[in-house]
Amino acid sequence: MLTLRDVSFAYQGGPKILDGFSMDLQENQIVSLLGPSGCGKSTVLRIVADLLVPDAGTVDWREEQNLAFVFQDHALMPWSSVDDNVALPGRLKGMIDQAAVASAIEAVGLDGLAARFPAALSGGQRMRASVARALAAKPSLLLMDEPFAALDEILRFQMNELLLDLRAERGFGVLFVTHSLYEAAYLSDLVLVMGEGRVEGSIAPKLDRALTAEQQRTSPEFLSAVQEIGAVMARETL
Prior knowledge:
The chain has 9 helices and 9 strands. Helices cover 38% and strands 24% of the residues. Strands 5-6-7-3-8-9 form a 6-stranded mixed beta sheet, sandwiched between helices. A 3-stranded antiparallel beta sheet has the order 2-1-4, with helices on one face. The mean pLDDT is 91. It is an alpha/beta fold. α4 packs across α5 (123-135) and α7 packs across α9 (220-237). The protein is globular and about 50 Å long.
């Protein structure tokens, strides 16, 4: 679905942010990028979204795919209702699919709040609206840049569950940036630990999604993934 090979990038006059970065993301996979600030995680997302052009390397993915971006800041328009915010991708393309908008709002549990403005929503509801806006674009790949970092632990768990449910229902891939080892281990099919602009280790948690969230978070597979990820991160800080 998405392949990056030997990608390098530096901002003008600065050091390399990415230096030989490579990765693969298969259909319907959630791949997390984990690592310290400045290691290039968000830069990878911007290159995939074609917001930055790499200095070297290749980015390959099918042209018929749709991308959608979810940021750490919900980035909702404060003067517009939830319904209008979610309709924004269609409006920018000159063709609003109201059925897709309504479906996205319902999918994130905001169907009774479509007429509300962002100021009247809780932090968790605003993030749900941001996710709904991305869903309305009918993406095959979601790019998510620390989307739940500002939420408290309970809301973060809830949004993790929502993302997994939406992925199962709608069948899209996710490239997910996070600083949380535990979030990466729980959400991901594959965790890529970055250091100095390249992948230094990859871990596949292999959790049993048929189990409850609590069972998954206490399973041997989860604990093993946390330990493996932690070991790679510790190695990079030595």
